[in-house]
Amino acid sequence: xxxxxxxxGFSLLELLIVLSIFSILTTIAFANLTPSxxxxxxxxxxxxxxxxxxxxKTTAISDSILTTICPIDDGGQCSKxxxxxxxxxxxxxxxxxxxxxxxxxxxxxxxxxxxxxxxxPNWKSYFQYDRLGTSHGxxxxxxxxxxxxxxxxxxxxxISLSGRARLSVDRNYDGIxxxxxxxxxxxxx
Length: 189
Hints:
The protein is an alpha+beta fold.
C-alpha cells in the first residue's frame, strides 16, 4: 500500500499577492532612503574636501613649497569647472597652476555623481598654500550641494586668509547650514 504525502505549493494567485506586497514595501523603503543617500554623498564629499585642504596646508609647511588645489583638465592645467574634472592637490614650485609631472601630484579627488561644487570667488579656479601654511592670496569658499536633494544636505567649506579650512554651521538651528553672512548655503544651477 502506498502512502501519498500531501505536497502543496503556492498557487499563482497567492504568489502574485505576496510579490505585489513585497514590491510595494520595497518601493516605500527606497523612497524614504533617497534623502539619506543624498545627504551621505554630500557629507562624504565635504569631508574629503576638508581633508584635501588640510593635507595641502600640511604639505606646504612640511615641504616648504607652494601647493595648489584645483580641478585638473586632461592637459594638466587648472580648470575653472569644479564639476567636470577631478580635483587635484599638487606641488607647484613655479606657481604656474599646472601639473607638469606626476611626481608632483599628491592626491586626486574624483568627481562624485549628483554632487555640485560652487567656488567663490567664481573667477578663481584654484586655491594655494604657501610654505608658511597660509592661503597664497586665494581665500574663498566651496559650496557643496546635492543636485537631487533639498537645502538640508548643502554644506560649505570656508578657507580663510590664514589658511584655515572650516565647515559652515547651522547657527539658527533650522537644519540648513549658513554662510558667514547668515544666508543659507546654496549652489547655483
